[in-house]
Amino acid sequence: MSTEYLKGDMSDYPVVHFHPRALENLSLVYAMDGLNPLIDAKVDNLTGEDAPQIYALAGQGPRSSFRSIRHGLDVMEVVASELPGEPTAVWTTKLTAKDPFDSYIVLSFTNGTLVLSIGETVEEVTESGFLSSTPTLAVQQVGDDSLVQVYPKGIRHINANREVDEWEAPLHTMVVAATTNSRQVVVALSTREIVYFELDDEGQLNEYQDRKEMGASVTSLSVGDVPEGRVRCSFLAVGCDDSTVHIISLDPENTLESLSVQALTASPTALRILSMPDSISVENTQLLDASSTLYLHIGLYNGVYLRAVLDTITGQLSDTQTQFLGARPVKLFKVTVQDQPAVLALSSRSWLAYTKDVSFMVTPLAYETLEFGDGFSSEQCEMGIVGIEGSNLRIFMVNDLTENTKTDVLRLAYTPRRLIRHPIRALFYVIESDNNTLAPDGRQELLSISRKQSGYEDLPAEEFGNPKFTGRWASCIEIVDPLSQEKPARIDFVNNEAAFSVAVCSFAASQRVREEEDQMEDRKPDGGEEEDEFYLVVGTAKDLSLVPRQCGGGFLHVYKIVDEGRGLEFVHKTEVDDTPVAMLEFQGRLLVGIGRSLRIYDLGMKQLLRKCEYKSRNLSNIVTINAAHNRIIIGDIQQSVTYLVYRHVDNKFLPFADDVVARHTTCVTMLDYETVAGGDKFGNLWVVRCKESVSRDADEDNGAQVLNARTYLDGASNRLDMLAHFYVQDIPTSVQKTQLVPGGPEVILYTGLQGSIGVLAPFVSPGDIEFFQQLETLLRNEARPLAGRDHLIYRGSYVPVKSVIDGDLCETYAMLPIEKKRSIAAELDRTVREVERKVAGFRTRYAF
To answer: Do 332 and 270 meet the contact criterion of CB atoms below 8 Å apart?
Structure first.
């Protein structure tokens, strides 16, 4: 629509302008950021981390956004300071037991120790009593007002008056590991001996008369905090390089006596004895903060983190939980977050182990990879964490433990429809379109009239939307760089066209022809090797009306991707007879779903060239395309999925299998060569598979046997088998097979229109299947929903639920009353802790 048409059409109507005012009777208290509507999503690892990220399109109109979702707790950085060298360790310490905050930051270097004071400014302390000419192994405030420094040649006990008592290691021996609390110090020598010190009533650090010799070299030590009302911790954990951890008694009756031994899969690099609240504490006391359970946290050389219950009477280890954290050896440090004890675990990423709603969680930090850490407390940052990253000293806080994902938001112009990634670069191409919205050219004309008549400035589109006009479409392509959070380029569509599909295609077949022509003409490209050419193809509809659905035709716009993916150069556009909704590169050419037709296009000089077409009266509108080898799987908006084989000899598409249920398909992905998973607009997720014999026959001679096969009920000659079906109460908008946890198995991840992100995880053990089936049955019977609706009817709203166990229902076990938990656990012949560990472990093993 031209500008003159706009003027003539609106000249008889006065321009109405709304000028908002600020809220007078209401004030914003809390805002929850949501993903509704979630249009499309891709899982990829663009940052090079251990776990991938989710890149999603969410929102509607000017409130639309491109979101980068990472698994991790968001942190608030307080200090980031560069140090003169690269320290190897860091500690914080108080000067007296009554001090509310830390006073010193102690940094250990390979050739010395640096002490910094904590205050309004951070300054070096020269008269701290610490030995600055040697590296430090441990720092601790002991007794009422003294400090302890453990270094490779001994122990330095610094009293309040700066008098120093020293214990020196025997000749030709070194201290290789140390652990401390407010009254105990334990060191391990290079001779495999354990030396134990304890503070007496007069504040002197005394060595125990005997030493404990271990059977292997000691790699790590840990002594827990002194319990309230007692004078010592009763247990010492010792890790040895023979892949064992020993629990040793520190009670006066049997000091340094071995209580238990636990074999490990690798040498322990870090140990931490720490009391943390859990479900057993709640079960015994009915109060979360009234009691806690003693745990031994273990970090291994191979990047595995373990947590085991340490029996406070016998010293035995039990109920071990395991999680892989990264490729580097694990280091463990005690910190305080949100008024509760937690463990900072450092590997190739930084992790935090904590208790959330009586459930144990291990979540990465959305922060730099740290090499050493400790708790930090000051007036400005009461419950912070100090860490070392290279030569940088970082102090930060974790303010929220309820949200375990971090989202970066980049605003978009219109409602997003699809996104696709560049094959090589870390860039996404997003197509957007809004109905009943003026394009930029007409919008500026309308707003200029409004400004002249009202005198007001433009209202923000993010709050009030773009100017509306019936029958008009505003649409564009935007290039998004998720790493730098930039949008390098944008192209707007004109002539009332709206984009609905996008694909990146190399048109390898056409490129080979051009290369052969160049070789025949003896033409050589200038310079060295060039990067492969990629083209962005966008499908648009002209003058589209949704109700009733009709359009004035469609177009396939072809753009050459230039400037290392950050720019687009228009090549040409091809007119088609309907809206192209689905596209995919197929064997160097372009597969396009246009209405009920499936076509192959190749690149021409002035437009795309149609090479092959398949059209069926049983199809309504092709909305998804997947392909592998010569097999093509199309999803129809009303007729579920159809398997086709492309026969090269005859240049034909031959359908050989379709679904028995007419599903209103919204998204489909291939799980393997015979199996697909998909969703429909009624909120169902399903998995269907083609029989292996049918699949083999279709591949033989490119479907020669399928060519003359008899069709069945106007469909294909074979039917697909339904393997699984589940109702998720949200319209799936994307589904894909991916891996979310480092070292974990692949899962099916789906996103829903209302903003839900879910996972279907496979069972690999018959024992797990039996356990979760029994748990699900017991929860259905003994913990019915508050609304009283039957669970089986709910999960099978359209088709009966099949081969899927409701994980959301199983996880409600942790929120049940104690008596219900005991009753269900007794039916399963397990303890409450075992049931909760089984349920929580399944989530940890597959997803976050």
So the answer is: yes
